[in-house]
Amino acid sequence: MSLVKGKWQASYIVTEGTMYVVFGFRNGDQADDNEGHLWDFLVHDNTGKPLRNAHYMRAFSYPERNYDTDAVNTLKNKDLAAEVTAYPDNLIVQTMLLKEALTKQGEAQIMAKAHAIAERAWQEAASKTEVYSGLSFMWRQLNKPSELEALKTKALQENPNSELATRLTLQTLVETKGTSCDNLSAFLQEHGEQVVPKDYRLYNVFNQYKACKDRERMLFWANKYVAYSEGMASYSNRTLATAFMESGFAPEAEEFIRKAIAAEPQELFRAYMKRGEDGTWLPTSLAGDKLALARTDLHAGNLKVAGRIFLAVQKNEAAYEALNTARKTLQYDKEVAMLFATAAEALARDQEAYEVYWHWATKDRTDQPTLDGLARSYAKLNAGTEGWAAVLAKLEGIWGKKPEPRFTVADYDPNRDPAKDLESTLVQARAEQKQVMLFVGGQWCSWCHALTRYFKQNEKAAQILQDRYLIMKVNFSEENENATFLSKYPAISGYPHLFFLSADGKLLHSQNTGEIEAGVGMAYDEQKVMEMLEKWAGR
């Protein structure tokens, strides 16, 4: 970029797949970067028309700039509308515009528009498979499972021998709980293994055979999945190692976790990489630190899984070494700490085990497994339980000084009614003049448990939560997605998810918790967490 006759000019080599480019001045440049604002341009084809999804990509860049919320929404919706004008068949963007307008226009009007869009798209479709994908996204986002089911029935009835119908039958087989593995095998034998697209659905087939504990077929589809996952083989092999471990196939789990560790140098973190002139992937100068962090996290995560597997196959020394290395990076990951303590106990390194259990026991008085480990290692070190009462008394003194977050609903229970829970929580919030945090997740969600622990164990977070918030957990699981309750709030892209409400129930903020993660291990960034809690504390 250079200043020519008072104007900034830049040249940029547009590579395949580039639709939208955003840039800004770096620290040290002899230019004012307008307090962090970014500059951008859309890539056009040779007729002067912006490439497909260029406006769409830009629409979601505005939150990163120094704009207020109203400006972000205005600019975002303007770009989404421009995308639909240029590409009326872009069902993803059509869906987003419908969701944006839902509150103002009402469900009846939005559903009428959605049906019109769906009918036109289906009739004009050059590829029913592609249109089905877009329409299924639309009905899911609008929380209309009955419409999605009707679309599936329509596709199967119109042409039961089509590629789409075959794909839908496969989808039913691999996504339905209790599917007979014999039925899945018969389908694959009839249509050939090539009927499974070379994407995430390879893992779906593997997962169905995992439910049947069919070791031979699990291995076959696991290797298919790894072959598809070139460039992310380390993560893929780790995922498969965990799956084999869950199924009780420890030798296979060990084989795949060793492959995961061996594949680490070839792992591509494309968010932090770029294509070189020879087509190879290279780290970008601006993301070198993030790339290094990602590689450190990958290695530590692999060692964590390896440690668990080595314990299962009674290779305790290997488990100890792997977990001791992992915990140096994953300092705030309690699971790593507990696995390490288990390995230390297995090797009669009781003092090390005791120190780990003590550290974590001081953080949470309700953590019974950790207290049991502490008692066990204490008894081994002291040849009995004499003096244990004094240890508990010391813990009580520590616990008594720690702040504790207030949960009006402390567990993820699919049988609870969140609407009634919120009604009583708001009554309590008004009486105590506090804000409300809706903590959406499930018992299945490991990150949900990690964030709960963080709220309890980080004293700064626990203090502001105790003083200014009531926390209410909302279940999301296969048993109960609480779709009706959650449809009143913005869409959720991952779990856990937090909604901040005032004491009168007004939505203040929707928080993607991925934005407050530490970036290494299953941990959270204290500064980001505290900024979030202080911003919505309602003082």
User: What is the CA-CA span between the terminal residues?
Assistant: 45 Å
Largest sheet: 5 strands, mixed
Q: Based on Cα principal axes, name the global outline.
A: globular
CATH superfamily of the domain at 407-535: Glutaredoxin
Rg: 27 Å
Helix content: 55-70%
Characteristics:
single chain; 539 residues; alpha+beta; Serine Threonine Protein Phosphatase 5, Tetratricopeptide repeat; Glutaredoxin; two-stranded antiparallel sheet; 11 strands
Give a written overview of the molecule.
This protein has 539 residues and is of the alpha+beta class. Among the domains are: 281-400, Serine Threonine Protein Phosphatase 5, Tetratricopeptide repeat, CATH 1.25.40.10; 407-535, Glutaredoxin. 57% of the residues lie in helices and 9% in strands. The protein has helices at 54-59, 69-86, 91-105, 107-124, 128-141, 145-158, 163-175, 181-191, 201-212, 215-228, 233-246, 250-262, 288-312, 316-329, 334-346, 350-361, 368-382, 388-400, 418-432, 446-457, 459-468, 483-486, 526-535; strands at 2-4, 7-9, 20-23, 39-42, 273-275, 281-283, 407-409, 435-441, 469-475, 497-501, 507-512. The strands form four sheets. Strands 7-9-8-10-11 form a five-stranded mixed β-sheet. Strands 1-2 form a two-stranded antiparallel sheet. A two-stranded antiparallel sheet has the order 3-4. Helix 16 packs antiparallel against helix 17 (368-382). The longest helix is centred in the middle third of the chain and has 25 residues, at 288-312. It is globular and about 85 Å long. Mean pLDDT is 88; it is low at 32-36.
